[in-house]
Specification:
alpha+beta, Outer membrane lipoprotein wza fold like
């Protein structure tokens, strides 16, 4: 049997000429298995150097592993993103799953009760004054009371007969009542005062967007939370798991998933007068790439989604090409999670190397899954997929090896014989 190998590859920086005589060796019919494997190993070593020039469906697992934790200078690309890899086990999956995002609460620092309800500019009030005698300022033989309609003016004040100008804006109903009462004690007969609220434009919030009825919602005196005012606007037009709530308060803005607000009471903050709430429908999606049966952008279509369900939505990995040890999930993660996974020392080291957050303050992290272990089917059920995640299934190194050997004209059977060696070298 005569084995001829033709090759023209860049190996360790040197061009190997395409000369049959340089790569030719003859074997007799009694070729020993170890000799064949020796030749296979030699071809594989050359092939692994040349496989990088073979077209592929993204990086190999070894390339992702190699770039993890390296600076742009170490990688050799000026603007390369600095990231780290975390192996997902039972502990890691639970840490990520148990983390609760608190975007609105962190942004506004709001907790506890609704705050103090005060009178504001434009509010309509009904001031009722009672007197004990029929000959008082506000009483007659028929009635011992008088009701005065008041509108708080732009300067925060309003006029009351026999009292004068009273400051209402910024005061509670009781504080305004006490001021009026103090002014009347020397003028009216045993007076008493009750103040009621009519229309209160200063105590309203705007709810718009993907709700059934956009409106300005007046707030009651006890205070209302985000879900309360959304309900008064007819509720969202979409499911909570694909509805995002954006709250604008002055110059600050915070956005959270309605599902998170419903499930986490700390996120269901009390709104304040003047707040603007916008509800938008944005179906949560993830992207599935690599050695899978369907490369696509896929909607969750459910309240929650774990890793196994996400891969299944893309019809799973391609059995002929996928590397079971090379499933990766790329994500910009909240800093609290990154610190919990990496620790402060490793986090600081990556920051010095150039790891940078995105516009929302989240840091790049790559989760690695080894689907060759049985417990991965359990771990994958507890690891949550988030919107905009990228799940990448790397191809097996033997795939590129086979392609390369075809390019150089070597027998493909050598790749089959040496697949195990290639796998070991890549690990």
């Amino acid at each position: 049997m005569k084995l001829v190998v033709r090759r023209s590859v860049c190996f360790q920086g040197h061009q190997i000429p395409d000369q049959e005589a340089a790569c030719q060796q003859s074997y007799g019919p009694d070729l020993e298995y170890r000799d064949l494997m020796r030749v296979t190993a030699i071809v594989i070593c050359a092939a692994l150097a040349g496989c990088q020039a073979v077209p592929g469906e993204g990086p190999l697992a070894s390339a992702i592993n190699e770039d993890a934790g390296r600076s742009p200078a170490e990688i050799g690309r000026v603007n390369a993103a600095v990231f780290d890899i975390v192996d997902v086990d039972n502990h890691t999956a639970r840490l990520v799953s148990d983390y609760v995002s608190t975007a609105l609460k962190r942004r506004f620092g709001i907790g506890g009760g609704p705050g103090r309800a005060v009178i504001g500019i434009g509010d309509q009030l009904k001031v009722t004054i009672f007197e004990a005698g029929a000959d008082g300022l506000f009483s007659t033989n028929d009635s011992k009371q008088a009701t005065i309609d008041v509108v708080v003016q732009p300067d925060g004040t309003a006029a009351i007969p026999y009292v004068g100008t009273v400051r209402f804006a910024g005061r509670t109903l009781e504080q305004a009542r006490q001021e009026i009462l103090a002014s009347l004690k020397s003028k009216a007969v045993e007076p008493d005062v009750i103040i009621g609220m009519g229309d209160t434009p200063s105590r309203s919030v705007t709810v718009a967007g993907a709700v059934n009825r956009s409106a300005q919602i007046p707030l009651n005196l006890s205070g209302e939370q985000i879900t309360d005012v959304i309900a008064k606007a007819g509720g969202p037009t979409s499911q909570p798991y694909e509805s995002y709530v954006t709250l604008v308060r002055g110059k600050k803005t915070g956005t959270a998933l309605l599902k998170s607000i419903v499930e986490n009471p700390s996120e269901n903050i009390y709104v304040q007068p003047g707040d603007q709430i916008f509800v938008t429908r944005d179906p949560r999606t993830f992207t599935l790439l690599g050695a899978v049966k369907s490369n696509s952008r896929i909607e969750f279509g459910a309240n929650d989604l774990n890793l196994l369900e996400a891969v299944a939505l893309g019809r799973g990995g391609n059995d002929e090409t996928v590397n079971a040890k090379g499933y990766f999930l790329f994500r910009y993660e909240d800093p609290e999670v990154v610190l919990g996974l990496l620790g402060q020392r490793r986090f600081d080291e990556l920051a010095r190397k150039g790891m940078q957050p995105d516009k929302d303050g989240r840091y790049p992290i790559v989760y690695r899954f080894d689907m060759s272990h049985a417990d991965s089917l359990l771990v994958g059920q507890t690891f949550p997929v988030k919107s905009r995640d990228v799940i990448y299934a790397s191809r097996h190194p033997a795939v590129d090896l086979t392609k390369f050997l075809r390019v150089i004209g070597a027998p493909v059977g050598i790749a089959v014989q040496g697949a195990a060696i290639s796998n070991n070298l890549s690990d």
